[in-house]
Design brief:
Elements lengths: L21 H12 L6 H9 L4 E4 L3 H33 L5 H35 L5 E4 L3
Antiparallel strand pairs: 1-2
Helix pairs in contact: 3-4
């Protein structure tokens, strides 16, 4: 029984068959993959009916920030390795003249490590600020 509160949804009963070349299919499939449409049929229907589609985009500033963090992480790993080596050597000394030199080198490395940690924190804060300003992974594009 049909009421005004529960209107019947339109059922898709008609078929549209089309043939594509492999290049045409790759082009349509590539366009589909850049959208949020899960099914190719839904994507094609929206394109044919000129309905708006939601396209996925990449934020270049976030990508650059991520690349910078990856570089910083590599530098931090190298510094950490050097720090561990110095610590092992320092622990092998008792009261020898080399102890003071090793201690000074350890302090220098610790300072470098602290600078890199500050740099990573600053870049992370910048990325967080971009995200919090409403930067999204998707943008709505009408009629594409």
């Amino acid at each position: 029984m049909q009421t005004d509160l529960t209107p019947e949804k339109s059922k898709r009963t008609e078929w549209l068959h089309i043939r594509l070349t492999p290049d045409e299919y790759r082009q349509i499939s590539g366009s589909h993959q850049r959208t949020t449409s899960r099914e190719l049929s839904a994507f094609a229907r929206k394109r044919l009916l000129e309905e708006p589609l939601t396209y996925l985009t990449r934020n270049a500033s976030l990508d650059e920030g991520l690349q910078e963090l990856v570089k910083l992480r590599k530098e931090l790993t190298a510094i950490s390795s050097n720090l561990n080596q110095l610590t092992r050597k320092l622990n092998s000394f008792t009261a020898t003249p080399g102890l003071n030199a090793m201690s000074a080198a350890l302090k220098l490395l610790r300072g470098e490590l602290d600078r890199k940690l500050t740099e990573i924190r600053d870049h992370t804060n910048q990325l967080a600020a971009v995200w919090l300003q409403g930067s999204t992974a998707e943008k709505v594009s009408k009629g594409h």
